[in-house]
Specification:
Butyryl-Coa Dehydrogenase, subunit A, domain 1, Butyryl-CoA Dehydrogenase, subunit A, domain 2, Butyryl-CoA Dehydrogenase, subunit A, domain 3, 3 domains, globular, oxidoreductase, branched-chain amino acid catabolism
């Protein structure tokens, strides 16, 4: 049982079409059946489930969701991507983060910044799941300050020579192909992007991070030492990467927000099940105590409010439709909400919540990353204020 049903009304923000409803039902069923059981073990061992990831393409068919059908994808919208991320994150947010890095940070990003020749070489491999993708943007000394990056590409004949280090790269140790952001001049305020393969000479994987949460998703450094990249792997034009980077950040932020929704939803479900069906104190069901009612009621209301915002913003996004203000707001609200709700769940379950018998402590650890990745919440606050200032200055 869940606090959310998949019954479709005549108008439904969360399942606006039959395709969206069918997608939610199939992903929800797969996630409960396949993700839940393996999540605890892979969190404890910090292991990436390669075989299960492949099945997302071969069996579930959810790679290329936002790629047009004529190019081998499903031709759906960012809202469909939000549905997938919410449903999968109920059971394994870490595994879902690797899906996000592949599907959003690589597939969607690559498709909308590449040309026909590049798509013919790479798209089918990542849509089938033959190859795993990722993105290289963050650096040891340049996270939120993305223009402070120092990874440099120098043109030499028919190729580019790239040197630098990328930090905290999801799928870094398991991926075969990455969208990589660089500068042609270290002092420039413009960026240039490439599609690069892990097999390229000069490409290596650095240290694997030992993380608090999202432990079933591998996070590593990527190191480039005189890495040679063919000029045909330039995405778009030189110094033109900021536009498609910012466009992709918006869908990244709403899908990270959707992961927060999945975490919160599972936590509320667990709190309700535990306090109504299982736990009694002083001869009464735990749900009958006012202190517990407050924690559960506020968690449910916070989840529903954040969910409405995230889905509304996602419904308004598209490859040619920008909404920086909405995407930043959705991420800020949803990620803060997930941390509160997962912490409430630990408190409601008491000792059981603090121990690993129930998944709420893992979900809380996973939730914390979502206020950091894709732009910190402090950056979201800055972006929101900046966008509002522009609106009121017009």
């Amino acid at each position: 049982m869940s606090i959310v049903t998949t019954k479709k009304s005549s108008f439904d923000l969360f399942n606006p079409t039959e395709d969206h409803l069918s997608l939610r039902q199939s992903v929800a069923s797969f996630a409960e059946r396949e993700l839940d059981e393996q999540a605890k073990e892979n969190d404890e061992t910090e292991s990436f489930n390669h075989m299960l990831f492949k099945r997302l393409g071969s069996e579930l068919g959810i790679f290329g969701i936002t790629v047009p059908e004529e190019d081998g994808g499903h031709g759906l919208d960012p809202l469909a991507s939000v549905i997938i991320h919410e449903e999968m994150s109920r059971f394994d947010p870490g595994f879902t983060l690797s899906y996000l890095a592949h599907e959003v940070l690589f597939v969607n990003n690559f498709f909308y910044s590449s040309n026909a020749s590049q798509r013919s070489r790479y798209l089918s491999k990542v849509i089938t799941g033959e190859w795993i993708g990722g993105m290289g943007m963050t650096e040891p000394g340049a996270g939120t300050d993305v223009l402070g990056m120092t990874t440099q590409a120098v043109k030499k004949g028919d190729r580019y020579i790239i040197n630098g280090v990328k930090q905290y790269i999801t799928n870094g140790s398991v991926g075969q192909v990455f969208v990589l952001y660089t500068k042609l001049d270290k002092n420039a305020k413009k960026m240039t992007s490439f599609v690069v393969e892990s097999s390229y000479k000069g490409f290596s994987v650095g240290k694997k991070e030992e993380k608090m949460g999202m432990r079933s998703s591998p996070t590593t450094q990527l190191v480039f030492e005189d890495m040679e990249v063919p000029e045909e792997n330039l995405l778009g034009v030189e110094n033109g990467a900021i536009t498609h980077m910012m466009r992709n950040l918006e869908i990244e932020r709403v899908t990270l927000a959707a992961q927060s929704l999945g975490i919160a939803r599972r936590c509320v479900d667990i709190m309700c099940d535990y306090t109504v069906r299982h736990r009694e104190a002083f001869g009464k069901k735990l749900m009958e105590f006012g202190q517990i009612q407050r924690l559960i009621a506020e968690s449910y209301a916070d989840y529903q409010a954040a969910r409405a915002l995230v889905y509304q913003v996602a419904s308004e996004l598209g490859p040619d439709v920008r909404n920086s203000l909405g995407a930043a707001s959705a991420k800020l609200v949803a990620t803060q909400m997930a941390e509160r709700v997962s912490r409430n769940a630990i408190q409601v379950l008491g000792g059981y919540g603090y121990c690993r018998e129930y998944p709420v402590e893992r979900l809380h650890r996973d939730a914390i990353l979502l206020s950091i990745g894709g732009g910190t919440n402090e950056a979201m606050q800055k972006n929101i204020a900046s966008d509002l200032k522009k609106l009121w200055s017009e």
